Each structure stands twice: as structure tokens, then as C-alpha cells.
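Onboarding guide, step 5: your first structure request.
Type a short instruction followed by the sequence, for example:

Predict the 3D structure of this protein.
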Amino acid sequence: MKTTLHFQRVPGWASSTLADWGSVWAKIVNPSPGTNLGTPRLLVRHWTDDRDADYLRDGRAGGARFVADMASAWARTPATAYELANEPDVNSNEGLAALNAYTIGAIEEAERRGLKLCVLNIAEGNPHDNDTGDDEVVRWKWAQLAPAVERAIWGGHFVGLHSYWRPGIEGPMGRYHALGRRAWDIATLADLGVDVSRLRVLVNECGIDGGIADGPAQRGWRDLSTADAYRAELVEMERYARTIPQIQACMVFTAGFEEPWGGFDVDEGFARSLTAPLRALGSTLPITPIEEEEPVQAYELDAARDRMNRLPATMKACDARGYVFRDEWYSGGHFYCLAWNPFTSRYHTLKLETRGWSVVEDAAL
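The system replies with C-alpha cells like these:
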């Protein structure tokens, strides 16, 4: 299940509810040491908004320093990934340049420490078009961030994007602020030459937000909708997210709320009311393995991709077995392929060696 929760505090019902949903991920802000929600993967954010600008201003060095400064806090809560700055400037030339360099520096330091990051963490509807109505403005801004995105992909890190909607303006598939916008962003990155086949996106905040389109700030679903309507929209969000393979999770803001976010509160009653409709959708893709090896050097990955361009071996291996190709990734000198077997209705991972492109392992999931 891609749908999960964003927690500002962790209530007692959290673990059992996420287990009932079948959620793969969960997110916690400022967790108590050792907090574990029982999900296969955990995203941690520490609130650093009051000092993020100083790190960002220093670009690459600032990103490395941020990771070094946060390492001891992160160590107290083992997690799959840790967030960098939240909702940084992605609309000024200076902000874009700083964020790109900061992200690369942070990744380099994280990899020296064996950590995975969730980078960018961009607010809904951003980068924006400067009120021009011209998508080329947004495309240009993404081009400035493409090196950081590519570096995250090479290292097996995650890209954080926020997605919100407002009743009467957009729904969860909305083109301008919600998941439809994030699908457009991913397509734009692909058009810019970024290999999005290995891009892993965490929609690390989502839900109804009154602030969309100059609406009332700090007002959530409890102010602007009903439980029945919001529940239906979250199911719609899950269904649509499954059509975007890069999206690994949609983290609904927020449970265990802190003020002034009471209008967004997902309490136990509402959370448990989502269990049946979410489970009725059935299972989704299995968890894509996260590489535990040292990050692949850029030139090594590029060389491997060049070979794949000449000989799309993973697709041929799928065809030979009657499987349907879904995804591929490179790790430790091998290419791996995620494939669907329509005859058994199961997923498989194929492991291919890069000399001769023979399949050395076919594991059903």
C-alpha cells in the first residue's frame, strides 16, 4: 500500500493501523529515540526550519555540514531515509543553484556515513511558473535541479515532493498542486534526459490544504470537507498513485497533530475507517530492494546504461519467460529487473550478469 501517514506525534494506535492498511512506509517528525512503527520502511524528519537557510546558503559545503551536524540525532532513530531541508526555495535563480549544490554535498556526506536521504522536499505546486502560465518556466527550473536528482538516483536516495488539493479547486489527481502535477514533473525530468526508471519519489506530505490557490491557510479536511468525501479522495489518491511507478509512498498530513494543524488531524476513528476501502483495492507492487552496497560511481552506472541501450537485456529476459517488464535497477555489478508473471499473478526479480547478459537468478516474490 502506498498510502501511509505523516506523524507529528505517534499515538498508540499507529502501528496496528498501518499494519492493517499494509503500508510500506511511515514518516515521523522529531521522533523519540528508537521509535519504530513496524512498517518495512521509515522516513524521519527533524524540524530545522529555523536554520536551514544557513546551510543552503553555503551550497555543497552546507549540505555536507548539515548531514554531519544531524548524524548524531539521526543515529538515535534508525530509519530508511532522513529528510533534508523542508520546502526550500525552488523559484529564484539563487535558490535553485544553492539547493542543487546543497543536495549534492549532502548526498556525498551521507554516502560516506552509509545513510540514505530524502532530498528536495518541494512544496506543492512548485517550482511554479512565476505567474506566467508558461510551463517552460517550470521546465527550466527543473533543469537547474536535474543534476541533484540524477545524483540522488545514482546513490539510491529518494526525492521528496509534496502534493495537496482543495475542494472546489482540485482533487487528488489535480494537475497543478496534487499528484497530477507530480506525474507531470516526473515526465518533465524524463524529457530533460534524467533516467527516471530508477527514480524513487516519496510524496512526503499530502492531503487537503486550504492554502491552495490563495485559500485559507492552516485549514485542512476537517475545516473544508467531510469524513466521507475525504475518505473517498484518499482512496482515489491511492488508486492513481499506483499508476505512477516512481511514487513509493503518499504520506497523509497529519496524525498526532501539533498546533496549528488540528484541521488536518487524522485521528484513530478516521484512520481505521480507511482500512476496508484501502484494502479493497488489493495489493500493489512489492518493495523495490534498496541497495546496501557502496553507491555506484556515476561513470560506472553510465557505462552500464550504455550497454543496456545497445542490448535491452532485461526486457529480452522478461519476454523469453513470458513476463511483463516493470522496472530495472543496477547494483553491485548486476542489473536487476522487476517483472510480472501474468500466468501466476506474481512478481519476479531477475538478476542478470553484465558479461553475456545471462539470467543468474529468477526469484518469485
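Each response can be followed by summary notes, for example: Residues 291-311 have pLDDT under 50 and may be disordered.
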